[in-house]
Amino acid sequence: MPTTGNRFVDSNERQQMEERNHQLLAEMQTLLSNALVGIVHLRQRRVVSCNRRLEEIFGYAPDELIGESSARFYPSRETFEKVGTRAYAVAAEGRNFSTELMLRRKDGSLFWGALTGRAIDPDQPQEGSIWVFADISERREAEEESRNLLQAVEQSPVTIIITSRSGEIEYVNPSFTRVTGYSRLEAIGQNPRILKSGEAPPETYHALWQTLLEGRVWSGVFHNRRKNGTLFWEKASISPIFGDHGEVTHYLAVKEDVTERLLAEKALRESEEAFRRLFEDAKDPLLLLKGGAFIDCNTATLELLGYRSKADFLGHSPDDISPACQPDGQSSREKAATMITTALKVGFHRFEWTHLQSDGTPVQAEVTLTPITLRGEVILHTLWRDIRERRVTENRLRLLAGVFENSAEAIMVSDRDNRILEVNNAFSRLTGYAADEVRGSDPRLLSSGRSAPEAYRAMWQSIRSTGQWQGEIWDRRKDGSVYPKWLSISTIRGTDGNIEHYIGSFVDISERKAAEEKINHLAHFDTLTDLPNRANLQGRLEQALASARRDGHRRHVAVMFLDLDRFKNINDTLGHHIGDALLLEVSRRLRSSVRESDVVARLGGDEFVVVLTGADAVAAERIAGKMLQSLTQPYHIDGQCLHTTSSIGIAVFPGDGETVDLLMRNADAAMYQAKAAGRNNVKFFAASMNQAARDRRQLEEDLHLALQKKQFVLHYQPQVDTQRRIFATEVLLRWQHPEHGLVPPGRFIPLAEDTGLIVPIGKWVLETACDQLKAWSVDARTRDLQVAVNVSARQFRQADFIEQLHELLEHSGADPTRLKLELTESLVLDNVTDTIAKMNAIKLLGVTFSMDDFGTGYSSLSYLTRLPLDQLKIDRAFVSRLPDNQSDAVIAQTIVTMGRSLGLTVIAEGVESEAQRQFLDGHGCHGYQGFLFGRPLPVEAFEQLLPSGRQ
Predict the structure, then answer these.
(1) What residues contact 913, with CB distance under 8 A and at least 6 apart?
(2) N or C: which end of the chain has fewer CB within 10 A?
(3) Using CA atoms, how far apart are residues 647 and 683, in angstroms rounded to an integer?
(4) Residue 718: which of 922, 941, 951 has the closest Cα?
(5) Alpha-carbon dihedral of residues 152, 157, 159, 164, nearest 10 degrees?
(6) Considering only CA atoms, which of 807, 814, 739, 736 is closest in space to residue 772?
């Protein structure tokens, strides 16, 4: 029974216990279901059961975790193992394990969680363990935020102060202590007025409290005082802090020490102002380039480019103010972009650039681009330097260097101690020393020893006193040869005024000295004959007269002027080489005709002067006769036999003059008198000769003016055929002098020949005759007329005579076949080969030829077949005595017969009687010219002859 009773009691107790357990389990399940944390029963680290909150925390569906490993809750296998090792070691001891760690949701996202757990029965591990998971992300974030906020406040570089509503300081951060010098303990409980400096006006604080009382934030700047008494600027922002019911509980002040910034800003403003002044006042153009366009520039930029204002210029890009291409051929646009990129990359870039001024004129500049930061932006500071002057300087330096190296003068540069630094190529050529051989040497190595020491001392004295010297010295070349040189030495001084260099330049004057001697000789002697010239003669004649005066005028001096008759004709027709050879022979004959003590001089051309010392008029006449006889002898030159004569004029000291000028002038007058008397004779001076000489000089002056003032006129003399019809006319030159009336040709033509004026006068005659031909070409009475023009030897021998004639015909438009040139027999025969060639060339133009004065030289007959003539003109000398003079009759008849047989027309000039005409007509003469048919007449009078003359 007891046993049974005991069993009953045990069974009853067990039933009651189970009921309590079921009740506890139900309560536990209810508790678990409503728990705010996740609870899980793990066995062997696998989920046996869990509440719904756990599934929600980790993002799983109901019952989805049952049987799964708890590794799902951890971010990695490594964390799972590490936490498990620690946790189960604690649980095995019957203790609770707690930790906070990162956990993983089903979607892989991580969150902060709190883990707490223990074994159900440490002695029975198979029962498992209970673990509680809580999501603490928000708490951790709040804690982290609080920590960060506190750390930020503590480490903030700005000052943070929290005061109570009454203004007592409750909190300051370390920055407060650093800025003010007050520690935290010294500040807590104090009023911020401990920082007050008294510098701020009361209105500032009044406005501050008014703003705060209105519940707004106040911002401003205080000028406060530190604990050590120093003042500082503080930028502050003070805010009210409100409680849960909207009441102000505290004030928060955030302050920043802006002393350095304000000072920096002040310095920056001052610096910017200084920069602006420097920018604007800079003499070189300065610009700011941003985004490929100019945003600022100074006045120098506008002046260089010619813009009136910044408004006209700013906004342009570099290629806007540049030519399309730079001098290297590259596009300005592309090259500008490259230069800008390089500057930005390297930090500095300098290059040369061609800009365009506002008017399009190119200007060269050196451009420097430097990136700078201005107001937080990177821009390009641009500097231009006008390099036009530098280019000129560089070109000048290159030129000077080229001059130095290529100078014909030897140049030597030495230092202040007179040691050679540099020499040029001419130095080496002249001295024989290479540059390397003389650098560092004393210039004395060139000394020849021929220049006296006194000369060198004087040279250095001049260099030291005046800074330069030049003169002649003798030097020695490397090969030992000695030569004279002209040396110039100059000093170069430094900025301190002391001598830094010497520059010596020199040339070999050996040739110059020889030339000077030659020039000195040429200055006193004639270059052709080596006779004394005019200047030399002047001096010698002065000496002779001075010696005669010392003898009390008892000694005579004869001055003889002479020239060769018709020398110009020989010189012009046969050539200057023949003329020069003739003059040489004349000078030799003159010297052989006088004594050694006498003077034979050549004034020029064919004019000579002989001075006979101690010779009176009788002796002078005797010697003059000897000269004439010698000069008339034949001259055999270049295969030709020439003849010439001379005219001599004599004046004797003292009777004919007591000065050099007077004697020479009177002798010259006597010579012209001799020429006028028939040439090849001697004349002594007479007073009347002076007037004749003056008349001749005046006539020569008038002749020059006549050509300039167009005082010449042409008269026309008819040429008629056998029927007395006018078929041609000869133009004859006349001079209508404004004072003397019509001057006859015989008076001025020889003078024109002597002076050479016959050439321009002859050109005028041809030009006027061609113009008249053109004028007559439109009139039926005159269009067939031929015009004959005389051409002088000097004119015909001009090298460009053919070109002149062609131009005159082209310009006038005259028919060249109506123009006939009359050449004298002597002109044609002087140089037959040259004359024929020139005549043939003129014939190609269409012009015809007539030989004037034919018959005066019988030697011409053999050349007639070669000459391209169209007409022969019988000289008036053979016509004037016809028909009575038998010799003239034979000559005239022969000329007509010969001309007809050669196919030439024959015309006789000077026909003045009917008997002359009948004789010539009877022998076949083709035409006539003379007073019998008409005198030379002005063109209007000549034209009046034509109707009757052409009937």
Answers:
(1) 932
(2) N
(3) 8
(4) 941
(5) 0
(6) 814
**CA atoms of 873 and 268, how far apart (whole Å):** 112
Angle at 682 between CA 676 and CA 683, to 5 degrees: 70
How far lies 43's CA from each of 46, 70, 95, 367, 684, in Å? 5, 10, 17, 85, 173
Other Cβ atoms less than 10 A from the Cβ of 768: the count is: 20
Q: How many CB atoms lie within 10 A of CB 306?
A: 15
pLDDT band at 693 (very low <50, low <70, confident <90, very high): low
The pLDDT score that the predictor gives to residue 950 is 41
Query: DSSP letter at 683?
Result: E
Q: Is the peptide bond before 654 cis (omega within 30 degrees of 0)?
A: yes
Q: d(Cα 247, Cα 403) in Å, to the nearest integer?
A: 97
Q: Collapsing DSSP states into helix, strand and coil, what is residue 408?
A: coil
Question: Cα-atom radius of gyration of the chain, to the nearest Å?
Answer: 66
Q: Hey, what are 656's tokens?
A: 């004919």
CA distance 522 to 218: 111
Tell how strand 682-684 and strand 646-653 pair up: parallel
Identify the residue whose tokens are 């021998």: 797
Q: Enumerate long-range contacts of 863-867, CB under 8 Å, 24 or more apart.
A: 863/828, 863/829, 863/832, 864/898, 864/902, 865/902, 866/832, 866/836, 867/828, 867/832, 867/835, 867/836, 867/839
CA 601, CA 592: separation in Å to the nearest integer? 13
Q: Hunting for tokens 């990177």 — which residue is that?
A: 378
365-400 pLDDT, tens digit each: 999 999 988 777 889 888 988 887 777 767 776 776
d(CA 284, CA 282): 5
Residue bearing tokens 């070189």: 284
Closest CA to 867 of 827, 819, 923: 827
Type and span of the H or E element at 492: strand 482-493
User: Is 411:503 a contact under the CB 8 Å cutoff?
Assistant: yes
In three-state secondary structure terms, 212 is: helix
Residues in the chain: 951
Distance CA 252, CA 219 (A): 12
Residue type present at position 697: R
Integer Cα distance of 425 and 415 in angstroms: 19
Map tokens 């153009």 to a residue: 285
Strand blocks (E) in 690-796: 712-721, 726-737, 741-743, 786-790
Residues in contact with 880: Cβ distance below 8 Å, sequence separation at least 6, in sequence order: 888, 910, 912
**Least confident window among 254-263, 273-282, 640-649:** 273-282
Place of tokens 């498992």: 128
> Which has the closest alpha carbon to 694: 663, 668, 674?
668
Residue 608, pLDDT score: 94
- 667, 612 Cβ separation under 8 angstroms: no
pLDDT digits (tens, 9 = 90+) for 712-762: 999 999 999 999 999 999 999 998 888 888 888 877 887 787 777 888 899
DSSP 310-343: HHHHTT--GGGGS-SB-TTS-BHHHHHHHHHHHH
Say yes or no to pLDDT of 593 above 70. yes
Q: Distance from CA of residue 516 to its chain's centroid?
A: 39
Of 376, 153, 160, 152, the residue nearest 257 (C-alpha):
160
Helix (H) or strand (E) holding 820: strand 819-824
**Inter-CA distances, 827 with 399, 512, 646, 795, Å:** 58, 46, 22, 11
* Integer Cα distance of 481 and 468 in angstroms: 27
Residue 76 above 80 pLDDT? Answer: yes
**Count of alpha carbons within 13 Å of 773, Cβ hemisphere only?**
30
Q: Strand 349-356 vs strand 362-374: parallel, antiparallel, or unpaired? A: antiparallel
Of 3-17, 332-346, 601-615, the one with minimum mean pLDDT is 3-17
Would you give the end-to-end CA distance of the chain in angstroms?
211
pLDDT, the chain, mean: 85
